[in-house]
Amino acid sequence: MSPSPRFRTGWRRGKKKAEDYISADYLTEALSTFSGYIAADELYDGPFCVLSIVDNRAFKRLVYEVLDHDPKHEDIVRFFGRFQRALESRGLHLQGITTDASALYPAAIAAVFGNVPHQVCEFHTIADLTKAILKAVSAVRRALKAKMPRLARGRPRTNADRSLARRKKRLQRRVTELFDHRHLLVRRHCTAAQKRRLEQITRGLPHLRTLREIMTEVYRLFDNRCHTDTALQKLAVLRRRVRRFKGVGKTLQTLFSPSLQKALTFLSNAPLPATSNAVERGNRRHRKMQKSVYRVRSRANIRGRIALDMQRDAQAVARTLTIDALHSARAGFTQELTLY
Q1: 3-state secondary structure of 62
Q2: Do 199 and 252 reside in the same domain of the chain?
Q3: d(Cα 218, Cα 273) in Å, to the nearest integer?
Q4: Domain end: 225, 243, 262, which one?
């Protein structure tokens, strides 16, 4: 894709970098339809870190910055301050922000945006909980493997050897079932057949059944029919229940994290997106592009790639209209041929 004239002019004269041109021209156009809700995230690319802010409803990248070091509080404050000044110069106001559970953002958001609603990504929060539960399942499988008896080489000859062989086979079957159906312990909705299978593989393992019940209650916290206050009351009850189960308390430490409370903010603010998928999809696209140039990346290269990606987003409407016009023209041409 060749650069547009405004990009080519800047590159030829050497007066501005690509991202500087985007900050002036692209940002004005992107903020003309600003929804008021943003998603912010950081992307680590080798020794560099890319900070991005994306319109969380229009899915447009608004500003970005490439750092040659790991981000600190001062970097996030400066980056957010740059975006806040862009909003103030256009008479716009931020209605809400969505991030992951990183400790970089809460203090910086309070320092720059004040008391703006801060939503922690629901997907990241649930992913941390499911990872903890799957880790507990792995521990159970390791414990069952440790109980497997050691058999002598060759076929079992005595009744005792045959009994040990049958016991080892039963344990191996349980380990295999726990591995093959581990997703049932963290699945949001289970069918009747899946529930029967879950009861079968957790027989004699009550703490796994408890983890499944707790995971079901966690999913209920994010029910859109509830408000944040109601969900927080349910969360308090769930935390008291988990404290009583000493065996699963250490597994579900994420349940006591303050980020879980912030992950419920969207329930009382319907326009506020529950996830940061708007910025994550851009990061995934960047990683895919960088795979082919992993050994030749540089700070200028990363800036240029993000600039081209933003230019692609800016041309999305015109590209869609062109494709629709071509399809319409092709359909009309095909209809004329049919008549002849």
Answers
A1: strand
A2: yes
A3: 19
A4: 262
